[in-house]
Amino acid sequence: MPEKSGIFFTSTQYPVTQQPGPMHPASHTARPSSRIVFYGTPEFALESLKALFEGGYHIAAVVTVPDKPAGRGMKLRASPVGQYALEQGLTVLQPERLSDPVFLDRLKQIDPEIQVVVAFRMMPRAVWALPSKGTFNLHASLLPQYRGAAPINWAVINGETETGLTTFFLRDKVDTGDIIFRESMGIGPEETAGELHDRLKVKGAQLLLRTLEAILSGNVDAIDQSRFTDSATLLKPAPKLYTSTCRIDWNMPSAYIYNLIRGLNPLPGAFTELRMKDGSSASIKIFRAAVENRDLPPETPGMVFTDGRSCLKISSADGYINIYELQLAGRKPMRTDEFLRGFGRNIV
């Protein structure tokens, strides 16, 4: 078991998994040495870290969140970024607070020339202002639109047909720094947030490398975000998702509910409750659905219709939502016909 020293782990305290072939550091084609510190946590950031590592860049350290309990046994588990970094023999720092003096001293010892941030928390000036070549962030929207923690989800929830990626230099206020590059990407009419996430993380890693090369070569002309808006532009935020965000309001139009379901698939999931004949209710998350328009006078929103075999739909303000895939609490996702075979007769 590795020992924890202060606020961070280092790779020398961990057994390092040796990866064969191009994944192992020894097999890299070395690039000019510029000390890079990478900040990230989830799968979205992992794709960018892999691109840096496989590209032979000098990653002086990787900063990620402390290990957290996970799984049935609630054992400590590293973040996707942390786990990958350790397997590659990289130094991993895991501060509880980025303002911790011990972490700041360690960072100054590393003396990074540039810092790269992907899907990480807000940074104090003492951290982002440290490198001589700056600190830049990869954000999953076309800034200044969708500043905040959940840009992919909100773009889909709001029914956007286009989103994209932005790299920008950090400032004190979140997601407001000067833009280096932007790259647009379409959103399919049936595409979920999870599917969009997987496309964006690949494109994002490519844009991150392009940005890094431009900065290291001194070929950057960053642009203030105000240049991408005018007085008539409505800026849409991308705040953190809460339980209240995920609860379906059946008084809303079908198109809004459909986009909400897409935008919260697979996580955290849009949910509602079904009333059962015994007076209880069952909470379900809805993952796949479709809009059914109606020509008849509207039903009361929230009414459930089912044939008990394969059809399950709920009325909205202007139509129905046909449910194709759902999940009961504590169960795996299932098709509607599978759900109805077990519970169809009990739904009110």
**Strand tally, please?**
15
CATH superfamily of the largest domain, by name, is Formyl transferase, N-terminal domain
Which whole number gives the mean pLDDT?
Answer: 90
Oligomer: single chain
Largest sheet: 7 strands, mixed
What does the radius of gyration come to? 23 Å
Q: Judging by the overall fold, what is the CATH architecture of the largest domain?
A: 3-Layer(aba) Sandwich
* N/C terminus separation: 53 Å
Number of separate structural domains: 2
Structural class: alpha/beta
Question: Low-confidence parts lasting 5 or more residues at pLDDT below 50?
Answer: 1-6, 8-30
As laid out across the biggest beta sheet, the strand order is 5-2-1-6-7-8-9
- SSE order, one letter for each helix or strand: EHEEEHEHEHEHEEHHHEEEEEEH
Quote the CATH topology of the largest domain: Rossmann fold
Would you give an account of this structure?
This protein has 348 residues and is α/β, with parallel strands linked by helices. It has 2 domains: 218 residues, Formyl transferase, N-terminal domain (Rossmann fold, 3-Layer(aba) Sandwich), CATH 3.40.50; 104 residues, Formyl transferase, C-terminal domain (Methionyl-tRNA Fmet Formyltransferase, Chain A, domain 2). The chain has 9 helices and 15 strands. Strands 5-2-1-6-7-8-9 form a 7-stranded mixed sheet. Strands 10, 11, 12, 13, 14 and 15 form a 6-stranded antiparallel sheet that branches. A two-stranded antiparallel sheet has the order 3-4. A hairpin with a 5-residue loop joins strand 12 and strand 13. It is elongated. The termini are far apart. The N terminus is likely disordered.
